[in-house]
Write a structure and sequence with these properties.
Elements lengths: L1 H23 E8 L14 E8 L6 E9 L2 H5 L6 E2 L3 E2 L6 E2 L10 E10 L2 E4 L4 E4 L14 E2 L18 E9 L3 E11 L1 E6 L2 E2 L15 E8 L7 E10 L22 E10 L4 E5 L5 E3 L4 E5 L3 E5 L18 E2 L1 E2 L6 E4 L5 E7 L3 E4 L5 E17 L6 E7 L1 E2 L5 E2 L9 E5 L6 E3 L6 E9 L10 E8 L5 E5 L2 H16 L24 H5 L6 H14 L26 H13 L2 H22 E2 L2 E2 L28 H22 L6 H19 E2 L4 E2 L4 H10 L7 H15 L14 H7 L3 H9 L6 H6 L30 H10 L2 E2 L8 E4 L9 E7 L4 E8 L4 E17 L7 E3 L2 E2 L7 E4 L2 E15 L1
Helix pairs in contact: 5-6, 5-7, 6-7, 7-8, 8-9, 8-10, 10-11, 12-13, 12-15
GO biological process, one term: carbohydrate metabolic process
EC number: 3.2.1.40
Organism: Flavobacterium nitrogenifigens
Length: 916
Amino acid sequence: MKKFFLHLTLIISLFTISAKAQNKISVSDLKCEMLTNPEGIDVLQPRLSWKIKADINDVKQTAYQITASSSLEKLNAGNGDLWESGKVQSDASVNVIYNGKKLKDRQDIYWKVTVFTNKGEVQAKETAHFSIGILTYADWKSTRWIGYEKLSKDDSISQYSKLSARYLRKEINLKKQVKSAKVYIMGMGLYELYINGNKIGDQVLAPVPTDYTKNIKYNVFDVTSQLKEGKNMLGTILGNGRFFAMRQDYKPYKIKSFGMPKMALQLFVEYTDGSKDVIRTDDTWKLTTDGPILANNEYDGEEYDARKEMKDWSTTNFDDKNWINARYVQEPGGFYEGQMSANMKVKREVKPISIKQTPKGTYILDMGQNMVGWLQLKVKGNAGDKITMKFAESLQPDGSLYIANLRDAKTTDIYTLKGEGEEVWEPRFIFHGFRFVEISGFTTKPTLENFVGKVVYDDIQTTGTFDSSNPIMNQIFKNAWWGISGNYKGMPIDCPQRNERQPWLGDRTTGAYGESFLFDNQTLYAKWLDDIKNSQTIDGGIPDVAPAFWRYYGDNVTWPGTYITVADMLYQQFGDAKVVEKQYPYMKKWMDYMEENYLVDDIMTKDKYGDWCVPPESLELIRSKDPSRLTDGELISSAFYYQLLNIMKKFAVIANAQNDIKHYDELASRIKKAFNSKYFNKDKNNYANNTVTANLLPLTFGMVPEEFKQKVFENLVHEVEVTKNGHVSTGVIGTQFLMRTLTNFGRGDLAFKLASNKTYPSWGYMVENGATTIWELWNGNTADPAMNSQNHVMLLGDLLIWYYENMAGIKSNPETPGFKQIIMKPDFDAGLTYVNASYESVYGTIKSDWKKDKKALVWNITIPANTTAIVYLPSNDVSAVSINKQKLDKTSYPHSTEKNQMLVTLSSGNYAINVK
């Protein structure tokens, strides 16, 4: 009887814990390949992830159980006909590999997860779904590419290319009741898809750009609810995008073009009786180029004539007798792939803050923010009236638009009215980078209510927030957010406004790392690494721009090296080892290529750009002419290549290529020896000509002999603090490591001075001079402004990393990538008196909110469930510290001391820390 009661008590106790877990713990954010319910993936063993959220502390996953089914009904019935993992003893909740039955083309998978924790068992309330795409080229063989490869009467192929949109339609007859239906579409360069008059999806500027001769991305939509038994109408509009290049027959040796817009589409229909049907693109589709979109060119803008609108063109009520049959056209050449990254979307709206009339009768609209997207127009007028909108980032002293920095981009939208009451219009296939718009053509005085700014970037989550006691730093953070988001266009581009907008590698070498704290950019950058891989030459070379829309194959280390540093970011920040395994052979090929072609006497001799954009000695200069400010290019390339070798050693382990490590080790050792022999001045304790970058790179990369490190650092500090009067003197290369290295060597106060400066050269100088994004040049307002993009992110360097890792204290432990363990070590003495920051990691929300005065430090932190944190406290006096109002002891909070700091390892939860 006693045993029975004990056993019953144990059952009740377990039930109580499990019930408590249900109330206090939840499982959500179920993802496949870090995408939410993706359609048409092309991975047969996808990775599944989930987040555990808890209102109680110390929650650890001990096991999981995944059920995957071929239908929602089977899943709800507990029938895991595809995969029943059973209870797996593991704390893995990120990138768990599907290990069920082999998945097939166009298959739907429904799944859920039950999580077992040390506090009880909990099942995700949501069920998740993903589907497999069309996996082989042969499965598209019966689907023809269609289009129209001729110019209409007002089209032109020239430096300023103009091509009208293609409208296509196809009536289909579904003779049975539809059970399910999916569309697979490749619309080059950009498309909008309609069924029975309704646009499918809320994406814009789709699909994401690639080198279309290498790979083509298709999008997949479940359109079951849009179809009905009987007659239905499929419609598409094809825009030009990067496919029909913005500059045709202009510098063809440099600018790549792919042809005229075209499309391939498959509609798979399953009926309720189990039978199936496939509708494909062929020459029975009808086509016209005589629609309202007269031109759409990313550089020059969109022209729209509302008088040419075709009411109900994508419904069965429309008469298309004047349309022609679509033509069969040559396929683009690239392999067909499911798109594994987000399309772009209108992410927010901006209302203008002022509108002023100019002496010539036009109006200048001020959005109050340098933004990227387009303007929605509301207008009344007569048929044939034209509203012209020209976009720019800034104004001239007389109040007119400043357009010299746009180069030959026309950045102009033209809307011709149809004269039917209030008309609302916005473009479909272009975007602008702008704050100001010159408006002309209104017959009455326009007001602010006539316009709304639409902000467009990749449909990814903002994951980071940051606020501090320093207003300048806070504004820089906001400027960075606007600049980064605006330059996410299915790939990271350098600028959104002038006739460039290219995916330069060098702009993101370290920048991608800082961006990852603000945005969930994992799938964007994983896709971009594929772009880089696909641009690699047979012998191993990598261009400076990828996809290689511009043919810049010139070879150097620092720009192509981004291929490796971005992969390292994805591993460090998101725990993505798969991307390293996938890209490793091609990275190795490039490393070997550079070694074989440019390593001479163990010095890497190839550099193209130097420390790009070093702040000039004069506000009027675009580039510095002072040799003492410029760092030897071979020093930069040699140091950078040495650092890449160290990253490749880590990658070799991940990719199970341990045999490569010996070569990397030996080569790195030789380069380090030759580097110090050539560049280190032992009598002066500095490198080369003693620029900050010359000393900074070997310090950061661990190339300085141990006994000289402090002396070299002192020389670096003297250059920053005395010679440059506490200002930035590094260009794109040095600034990638400047803030963290100063802080790691004990001069966080000097890094803070750089971050909070208001005078030239500094990020604060941009703010003080009206910037709402980040400039391309430190002195972009006074050097030739025609050379300055006012929305560039390359000069951020490691500033955002420093904000989070060194000021907020939110850093992933390199030994446990993806924030499985967090290092929380703010520099409380750098100069800030409070920081309130958060970051949505792959495990959940991390928060660091601290405030200090002369008496105490109050620090509130949040650690996600299923993770831990090593927390550094600025005291070695146990009696001065309390956590959640509890004094420290070895039982409550085990701790250790290191110099003048205390290290406490905390499990998940919320903690209020007080240090007297």
